[in-house]
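Reminder to self: keep the SMILES exactly as supplied, no canonicalising. Ligand is copper (II) ion.
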Amino acid sequence: MTCRKNVSQLTRGEKARLVQAFLDLKASAPSRIPAAQAAVVAGGGTPNRYDDYVWLHNTVGLGAHRGPAFGPWHREFLHQLELDLQQVSGDAELTIPYWDWTTDRDAASPGWPFTTDLMGGFGNAGPGPTTGYVTTGPFGSPASWRMNIRRRGDADLTLKRSRGVPTPAQLPSREEALFGLGVGVPAGGPWPGVYDGPPWNDASTPLTDAQVLASFRKYLERILHDGVHVWIGDAWELDPQGRPRDGGHMTFPATAVNDPVFWLHHCNVDRLWAIWQRRTTTPEHRPQAAGTADPGHNGDDPMVNLATPSWFAAVLHRRPNDVQDHQRLGRYRTDLPGITLASPAVPFGEVPERSAAQMPVAFSVRTCQPVTFRLTGVTGDGFAPGDPDVVTVEHDPVSEIVAALVPVAYEARGPVGMPQTGTATIAASIVDTDGYDAPGGPGAPLTVGTWAVELTATTVAGRAGQAPPVAPFRDAIPAGARPQPGTGPEPDARSLAGAAGPVPGGGRQHGPAGGQGSPVGGRGGLDAVAAAGGGHHDAHGEEARGMGGADDGHGTHEGHEPHGVHDHDAMAFTMFHLTPAGEVVEVRPDEIERDTSGYDDGADPGTAPPVGPDPAEEPPGLA
Ligand SMILES: [Cu+2]
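Structure tokens returned for the bound complex:
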């Protein structure tokens, strides 16, 4: 069973294999999409499988953004790319890692992806328009990582990112992520407790703050997702209306997939959605009915650009309703384990007097992280904890299910012939690395289940010289708890060339796990959330259907999308934050502000008008 890990948990070898798989998709894996091939050839490149994905995202536009399909579309997109990475590498355990930008926000953090052995660094500094080129790492050379699908007028063949490392504080904060999960919300205050709500297509309808805060999809997309794109990509040339004209590839939906860090970002976005789905009582996709939202966004619609089977090597999940269970498409290390008690009763049978027997309580465990079982109590005459009384099982990459066997003992000293009954109580826990669930915060233990197991035994007369019975420990494991061969995420998954076949594996089991981190101190809760929205986002006309563009949210640049024209190439992601006062505000990446202070040579007309937010409007806590 494969699990997606935090960047910080990757070994050197895993990083190298991931990088090589990306490079191989670009260099040698054949394209499956005729229209993508044509686009790449038009850009002077050689068709390849990686650029199929750049093209899919380049052309999907509002089919995957600004509407309910945002979550499902990118979930399936990740799943398909991951299977292509596995196929090209021959490594069936290769997974896309996630970059948790709420915790790994600078080069000193273990999960920082912008390193020379993974994603490479940021863009080079000015002056002039020919800046922002990534020059370090595996993706910094057009010889091996050529930009074949570009925006109109952009001839650069080298990957571009922000000129220099952006300000960490501008990334979405842990508080903002937690608010989306319902943590830290003032009592009675609104939070994104339903998946989506009207207006379904928010590119064509201005959103209020209240609407952003009441829909997880809108909140995830606007507050947690968009800004990271701009943070990485930045923009250093603006037109007179303040729209980005040049910037890093991540800034523009049309080109974002050119940057492989796209996948590490979206892996974390999808993970947050999965956590939200687990924590809410109303996780289902909305809207279900056909025709309420734009085509591709309703629960049973075929999703845009994800409905043609020949474009993909693996079976396609075409509808938002097909991808609601992320466990079928990509599990996360931080997923809570699935645990089934396989032996609700433990019958010791007849045990000769003055001997002791040990029997296992068996659990079937599906997990991406270590799970610790503790015997917390034993009742009944003669019953006792076995040895050991703490058992930890780990994720097994080749086995879907691992077995946890927690021993219980019976010391046959009771009256001969009288059946004894008792109870063993066993608790299972994990270490909550995120701290989203454990009251103690990150690194604290989180109990994920407690079970009471019935014990029965009868002491019988022993004969002189008879050896104590050997407990049938292994044989006593119920069939349901025996380790299962890895069957892959689903039966229709394609076979992987050169990949190791499934091996029936025993659950690896070892002693007690330590690792209780220190609880974090209290966080300042978010203040009461203002329900009254400004209605100032995406003030585009109905026909323009822009994605936010460079609208600063205060009306100064409204109307820059010509009516009747859907200029997909011009769309840019915009950074929004939730302030402690509960307002949704736009924040400019700092690069643009640097531009205004003479960073750029100013040679280009329209470069860097002073569009930064008024310092007085700068939300507290973001500086
Ligand atoms: Cu996207």
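Points to follow up:
Residues 343-503 form a domain with the Immunoglobulin-like fold (CATH 2.60.40.10).
Confidence is low (pLDDT under 50) at residues 467-565, 591-623.
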